[in-house]
Specification:
CATH architecture: 4-Layer Sandwich
Radius of gyration: 17 Å
CATH class: Alpha Beta
Largest sheet: 6 strands, mixed
Low-confidence stretches: 1-6
CATH topology: CNF1/YfiH-like putative cysteine hydrolases
Helix content: 10-25%
Number of helices: 6
Strand order of the largest sheet: 4-5-8-7-9-13
Distance between the termini: 32 Å
Strand content: 15-25%
Structural class: alpha+beta
């Protein structure tokens, strides 16, 4: 079930995160952007009026303890850490209280992470390439380095809004990329489309679960959205082409 909170129509993840770990996902509702970016677009790289983006980010800031760290996401594998902050990265981890980390998407899979104790958190952007090449595994590894934990079993993951399994049409090249990766995934991850030879419906949620489970992480939540079909709630690049971006955010709350 998708809960909403505040006038910004935020989706609040349902997962057993520690009480000090706060998380939220923005929707396309509650902002001032116009046209295909209507209305709460947070992406400053998609052609929207920069003034509208800044105004939308200012509205979001009223809900947060600090300005989010916005990454330039490039469908890669790099993870930004407190000791090596990167401008270009597709994942980010932190152990600093009130440091808000964020991932922007419009079909790709956003994944939020927290340790059971709530001392380390992470966020990752997983399109099919990054997911196939190991961006989630890299994020878990950096969280372990930051926390000193030897096992991923004490890490929780929440799979945020992404293109759903009945909307993500891919070709044989994508299926073969996952097969070549030699990491097992459920057969249902790729469902052949009878009317389109060589085409499949790909399930990012199942693929993400298999990748996380491969490194020992089995506390996995979320994964019941579809950005394409939930048009009123989420931006979707696959559906609209020109569109905005929504954000998945997480932080360790501490009173100032």
């Amino acid at each position: 079930m998708n809960n909403s909170a505040t006038a910004l129509k935020l989706v609040i993840p349902e997962w057993p995160a520690p009480p000090q770990v706060k998380s939220a996902v923005t929707t396309r509702e509650g902002g001032i952007s116009l046209g295909p970016y209507q209305s709460f677009n947070l992406g400053d790289h998609v052609g929207d009026d920069p003034k509208c983006v800044l105004a939308n980010r200012a509205l979001l800031g009223k809900f947060l303890p600090n300005e989010p760290i916005w990454l330039k996401q490039v469908h890669g594998l790099k993870v930004s850490t407190p000791n090596a902050r990167l401008d270009e990265a597709d994942a980010i981890v932190t152990n600093k209280p009130n440091e808000v980390i964020a991932i922007m998407t419009a079909d790709c899979l956003p994944v939020l992470f927290t340790s059971e104790s709530g001392d380390v958190i992470g966020a990752a952007h997983a399109g099919w390439r990054g997911l196939c090449n190991g961006v989630l595994e890299n994020t878990v590894k950096e969280m372990q380095v930051l926390s000193g934990a030897s096992s991923a079993r004490k890490i929780l993951a929440w799979l945020g809004p992404a293109i759903g399994p009945t909307a993500f049409e891919v070709g044989t090249d994508v299926l073969e990329a996952y097969q070549d990766a030699k990491i097992p995934f459920p057969d249902q991850s790729f469902v052949a489309i009878p009317s389109k030879p060589g085409k499949y419906f790909a399930n990012l949620y199942l693929l993400a679960r298999s990748r996380l489970e491969s490194v020992g992480l089995n506390q996995i939540y979320g994964g019941d959205y579809c950005t394409v079909n939930q048009e009123e709630q989420f931006f979707s690049y696959r559906r609209d082409g020109v569109t905005g971006r929504f954000a998945s955010l997480i932080w360790i709350s501490q009173s100032k």
